[in-house]
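User: I'm curious whether this sequence folds into something compact or stays loose and floppy. Could you predict its structure so I can see for myself?
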Amino acid sequence: MTFSTSRASAAAPSAAGREPAVKPGKTAAGPEFGALAQASILIVDDEPGMRNFLVRTLGPRCKLVDEAADTDQASRKLDSNRYDVVILDNIMPGKNGVDWLAEQRAVGFFADAILITAFADLDTAIQALRAGAADFVLKPFRSNQILNAVARCLDRVRLQRENYVLRYALRASSDRAFLRDNLIGQSAPTLRVRETIARVAPLPTSILLTGESGTGKEVAARSIHSLSDRADKPFVPVNCAAIPPDMIEAELFGHIKGAFTGADSGREGLFLYAHGGTLFLDEIGELPLPMQSKLLRVLEDRRVRPVGSEREVPVDLRFIFATNAELQQEVERGRFRADLFYRLNVMQIRLPLLKDRGDDVLELAGIFMSKLSVQLGMPPVPIDASVRAALASYDWPGNVRELRNLIERTLILGAFPDDFAGSRNDGQSAPADSLAELERRHILGVLKEVNGNREEAARRLGISRKTIDRKCALWDV
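Assistant: Here's the prediction. I'll summarize afterward.
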């Protein structure tokens, strides 16, 4: 918490409400206030002169400035709107600002609050800190003081969100940072996907990305985001399968202090962290049924209710979903809500298998080789003609992820494995120690461990049930 305690000079008017307004389009002396351009501000003060001064100061620079004459009116505005910063007078008839702020924190209010008061002492400062005020400005003040306070709040929140999203992405991502933003390849299937992405990216429509594990669904999602009008806003990837079912609601929607055991403080969820940008929900088929109904409500109303909160918070999001499951079959089995499926399945983009992408595998292998060699600090291994033929003929059940793992293993060994011969297309049986035979033994071993349950084996292997069915038919199992 910071305290803006410098007083206006003796030449300044004693009432802030009579200070000359800052002209629209002009920047006051001092730092730039570019962060204010997209900000929504709520002013809560019982003095019309103060509200008028703050509106004239902030209005030309902010996206939205609302005002409330008392805490009851302010509460109603919070119920229907989302604000980035609340500027709050402490001494008001009926209820003081500190008490009202503490009440709002308890029912799900996460935005920064700036307390303004003409009567400051240590007790008031301590109460404001405990109530969750982010800044404290003494009256009388000049326009620059309040502009600086608001800019500090916005910058702090932006940095906190960016930090959290980056840490979450590092924990959740199963791939390296490179290649995430680029759909590599010039094959016909890849070009079709890229063309579809270019058409849908500028639209607000929700997108459902389907395809087997490792085909690049997150890459496609990031491409959609980078080509949209939200490219400069957050892109928040969420792996629904990686979050424990009992924590997923709090992780997505946020929670207030005391909402459950261990909730020592309130926190915004990933939905609110992605506000204005794109939320990518991967493995949407793994979302528990109770959360599916809550997600449907968010899609319909564009409002989220943090765990333990009495208030719903408006959100502005572009949704992208991904799954390697056949959701229509999941609906028939009662594992996925039909109404949610039809809401998601507005525009579906299916990512092709690596084995169907022609020479893309060779281009990807070359890129992985150069990138991973730098990352591991090892010299690149030449990809000769025999290896290129093997890469092109192999079935790649693990798709791009399997290719990447092969290249990393090759760099560690200093050469492609001796047994790497790829699967045969000429009907000949593979050598006993070939990669195809190792693949067969591995898949059959996992099937034996799960007592022949092909869906469970597919989940453990990170491939689709269809791939296992196709392999078993090939092996006459």
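Summary: The chain is about 45% helix and 15% strand. Residues 207 and 313 are 23 Å apart (CA to CA).
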